[in-house]
Amino acid sequence: MLATMRDARSASLLSLLCAVVALPAAVAAQPSPARVVVDADRTTGATNGDLLGVGWNSGDLSRLAPLGPPLVRIDSRLESAAPAPGVFELGAVLERAARVRAAGAEPLVILYGMPRWLGEERAAQCEPNPVFFPDGCSPILVAPRDLDAWEEVIRTVVRALATAPAPAHRFEAWNEPDLPVFWHDTRDAFFTTVAATHRAVRDVAEETGLPLRIGGPASSGSEFVVAYAAEILQRGLPLHFLSWHWYANNPFLGPDGAEGLIDPVLYEALAGVNPNATPAVYGEQARRVRSEVELLLREAGVELDPDLLIDEWNLSAGGLDRRHDSHEGAAFVAGTLIEMERAGLDGAAYYRSIGDREAGDWGLIAPDGTRKPTWWVFRAFERASGSLLDVRGDDPGSGFWARASRRGRRVDVLLASFRAVGGSDRRVTLEVEGDCAAESALVGRIDATSADWGRRQVVRAADGAFSLDLAAQSVAWLQLACPRGAAVRSSRCLPG
Description:
The N and C termini lie far apart (67 Å). This protein is 29% helix and 23% strand. The chain has helices at residues 2-18, 78-81, 91-102, 116-125, 147-162, 187-208, 225-234, 264-270, 280-300, 327-342, 373-383, and strands at residues 34-46, 53-55, 71-75, 106-111, 170-173, 213-219, 241-247, 307-314, 347-350, 387-392, 400-407, 410-417, 426-433, 440-446, 456-460, 465-470, 474-481, 489-490. Strands 1, 10, 11, 12, 13, 14, 15, 16, 17 and 18 form a ten-stranded mixed β-sheet that branches. Strands 2-3-4-5-6-7-8-9 form an eight-stranded parallel barrel, surrounded by four helices. The chain contains eleven helices and 18 strands. It is of the alpha/beta class.
């Protein structure tokens, strides 16, 4: 009987999360030697440091300060912040916002968690889900019994944060409402609830004159985003950004241990490695969502330009993944940042900044303070800022990405190689066209033998080109100094 119940639960969860996705078998490619050409005279836009945001739940956030993250996404824990009608305990969320400001970042506050006194009545009437909440609905994951009371909670919390000495001006309505782990009510009830959230933030913005921003839905995938935009626009409410999450190993959960949010039996049924996981999906999602949102806005006759954010992302979710700790995860992160930047994504927040488990956690920094290889990839992107240069010759389809940037006489080239399975080494020839005839490059690597950029080597140009070996599941960072007097010509006007 127990085995039958487990099989039924596993089948139900697979149906819900995988949506009957058939994954083709991955083919281990054997790529030929790669030739990458960088035009040091031609810029294609500005680098986007807003992609280097993070999420933060716990741990010493000051450890992240050297990266200078532009955005840190934090919880409000409204079920604790408003424990009773007319009672507010905001010390914890105000302190979190202050710590984000102290790290030099802008807080993005998730307005999430229904106060129990507002949710208990509806939760008692809610239909249990046999897979995710068989014992009944949670009062903190349903719509409020009184929308006016909910709006007053939001107004009070947002006003306190917006006017604090260390303020927060960006707010997000809920978290992953398309997953029954985080929303136990109906879809219509969700839209009614978050419409009230948008109204309340709008009211505080008008009352205070502060530049408050509200958006959502922070869904678990991009498919829910356009429906959310349509609902908010239909109600004539402000919409400053649209957000979603993606973990490339989806629909599988991290293979190296349960996160603890679902039944262990169900975790075991879904844990594994998606052989087709690729950074390329992030660029595809960003381009598709932008196209669909622009069409929606045109048809609605609305002159808005909401930012697009992927404000949770990593290789795996729902379970631990040891690749998060290694050069393999670093290669994935480098490829994903390149994809996001190319697709014109406005911002992102990596999940997450500080880890709290010993192996396979999501953090850039381990619980003991060790900077993981992924931290060093973020460091390289933060340092390699300026103007993006025209790059030809990489091949995301085979798991190979290249990105070049320039600031003054300095040119940075980042190369990433990632395949979920079947990766292979490749020989890369890098040619730099234009006025930057550098004779040598300083090369750092993150691979199976190096977890950071500390061990670097000088590579000399031969016949005007640099040759280097790029191992499977690795990142290389080349730094070149152009001759004095070299000038960069822009192919289009750049902001600022």
